Amino acid sequence: MRYWLMKSEPDEVSFDDVLAAPAQTLAWFGVRNYQARNFMRDAMSVGDGILFYHSSCAVPGVAGIAEVASSPYPDATQFDAASHYHDPKATLEQPRWISVDVRAIEAGRYLPLAEMRSIPALEDMVLLQKGSRLSISPVTQAQWNTVVALLKEGKR
DNA sequence: GCCAACGTTGGC
DNA sequence: GCCAACGTTGGC
Hints:
Layout: E1 3-8, H1 15-20, E2 25-28, H2 34-43, E3 49-54, E4 61-68, E5 73-74, E6 98-106, E7 111-112, H3 113-117, E8 136-139, H4 141-151
Parallel strand pairs: 1-3
Antiparallel strand pairs: 1-8, 2-6, 3-4, 4-6, 4-7, 5-6
The protein binds a DNA duplex through residues 7, 9, 32-35, 55-57, 60, 113, 130-133, 135.
């Protein structure tokens, strides 16, 4: 059992979108970074905890708690010539990019990035390191416990 | 919209 | 394999 932080642009897929999906589950698609892909491929397991983070928006921050709901499988958008995520070098025989399914568990109060930066227990989070842009990053048990406690301070 | 930081590409 | 140029990320 591991823990992860996964970034999504809420204009594209928000935490509420996942909550509203059938079985509260959506495919996590569009990862086009090898390090992030390798985390999904090599280190994720069904049931791992996910901090669902909203990036590239007015107030970036953690929007809710989710979990890994599938094994890795090829990301369909890489084969779609009409998709923003199309990769001409990927083939059905040799896919380059993968997805996992993500199931929303619960929304806490919204935890803004600025607040996370003010919390000493979170200062080592990969997300908060200078220049960190990884869309999927590992979270320690202690960091997870801290963030979950903050999310549960006030429920929506 | 700016720009720092990082990743990828491609010529050599 | 080096590294300059270019593209992307993402907070502000």
